[in-house]
Amino acid sequence: MDQRPGDFEQYWQQTLDALAGYPACPEIDVLPLRSTDFATLYGVRLTSLGPYRVFGYLSIPTGDGPFPAIYYVPKYQSVLEVIPQGTANLQRSRYMTFTLAARGQRNADTPYAAMYPGLLTDGIDQAASYIFRGIVADSVRGLQFLLTRRELDPRRVVVVGNDMALITAALQPGATHVVTTPALFYNTAELAPRTQGYPLEEINDYLRAFPDRAEAVRRTLAYYDLWAFAPRLSATTLVMAGAPGSLLDAPTLGPLVTALRGQVTVYASEQSNYKDGLYTEQWMAAQCGITDLQSILSEHWR
Amino acid sequence: MTKAVPVDYQSTVKKPDDFDAFWDGVLQQVAAIPLAPEIIPDPLRTSEEIEVFQVFYSSLERVRIAAWYCRPTRRAEQIPAILLLPGYQADPPIPKEWALKGYGALSVAPRGKLRSNRQFNPGYPNLLTYNIVDRHTYAYRGFYVDAWRGIDFLLSRPEVDPMRLGVTGSSQGGGLTITTAAMRPEIRAAAAGAPYLCGFMDAIKLTHTYPYEEINDFLRAHPDSRRAVEETVAYFDGINFADKITCPIIVNIGLQDNVCPPETGYALFNQIHATDKQLYTYDGHGHDAGRYKHNAIVDRFLAQHLLSER
Question: A18 by DSSP, 3-state: which?
Answer without folding.
Answer: helix
